[in-house]
Design goal:
The protein is mainly α. Helices cover 76% and strands 0% of the residues.
């Protein structure tokens, strides 16, 4: 997976953890059930810059996506 793929997966996982307004669940039990999604999103967010720097062409493409 390249940097863009990791970045997209981060956004997808975080979207699963929030409502349409971007707010987390109000019920603590609901929030606790989403812990695995938050952890997976954190891993992908950490890997995105590393994967993007492996190949300079991918780096420029990823930077363009993040900047937009």
């Amino acid at each position: 997976m390249d940097g863009h793929g990791h970045y997209s997966e981060t956004e997808r996982l975080l979207a699963m953890c929030t409502d349409r307004g971007g707010n987390p669940p109000a019920d603590p039990e609901d929030a606790a059930s989403l812990t695995s999604y938050f952890r997976a999103a954190q891993v992908h967010a950490t890997l995105a810059p590393a994967a993007a720097t492996i190949d300079p062409v991918l780096t420029y493409r990823w930077v363009d996506v993040v900047a937009s």
